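job 3f2a | input accepted
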Amino acid sequence: MALFERIFEIILPVFLLVAFGYCYARLRGKQAISDTASVNRINMEVLCPLLIFTALAARDFEITNNLSLILAGILISLGSALLAWPVSRTLGYDTRTFVPPMMFNNCGNMGLPLSVLAFGSSALPSAVALFMACTLIYFSVGIKILEAGRDNSKVSFFKFLFSPIMIAMIAGIIFSAVRLSLPAALFSALKLLGETSIPIMLFALGVRMIDVSFKCWRIGMVGAIICPLSGLIIARLLDGLLPLDATQTGQMYLFASLPPAVLCFMFSEQYDQEPEKVAAIVLLGNLSAVVFVPIGLWLGMQ
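job 3f2a | predicted structure (302 res):
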């Protein structure tokens, strides 16, 4: 019973923040999405990169200690794609629609705060390392899947390397590797700014939930189940094979249980790849997190 109470205490604040965003959107209507657009832009271009940089550049972060966890994130992302591929073929779904959301989960705006609540603030750098691994896989393999069979303009992986998030990741890794440090006051200010991105991410996710549509509910439900289920299957196979400590194992299971990321919908719109179906997968997947995230926490916290 104590374990279930602990899991409830972890997930309740997260879903309450999402609920607050949803309630705000219900009160404001579609205007809420445009109201939060500029905040989301600041979050993705300034606050979230600062969160990533300060987590990786912190004195207590050693990238060599997280290599096994990064490998676990890569294998879970790739393994989920491999398991989702035959499902999409069997059910007659376009693999460009179904597979990419399975390999890029919500390890940013849901995974980061959940990791902090479940394992403490010291677990944030490891959660960022998982986020980094998942992002790199999606923007290489995932984008190549989206581009398959197309003659239109492509999104260059090297262009993505110059995005604020990737610059923050690279800078944080360099600071960690060569043991550089910023003045304490400056680092604390950047850290405080970065930490504000976590509640903003969750609130913004709640605002986007106002667009939940059941028009494509079948593919949405299949994706909502396959994404965390395939991740948990791969995590179970990796458990014991990789040299992970207890906290890293818990983070691996939490990471594996997360739903598809909202970013997948944005790229489906950019590529005109059945965005209404991807939206259903993402939105219903995030709703189903109330079932799968507790399972992941239970497996990881035993």
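job 3f2a | The CA atoms of residues 149 and 201 lie 34 Å apart.
job 3f2a | closed
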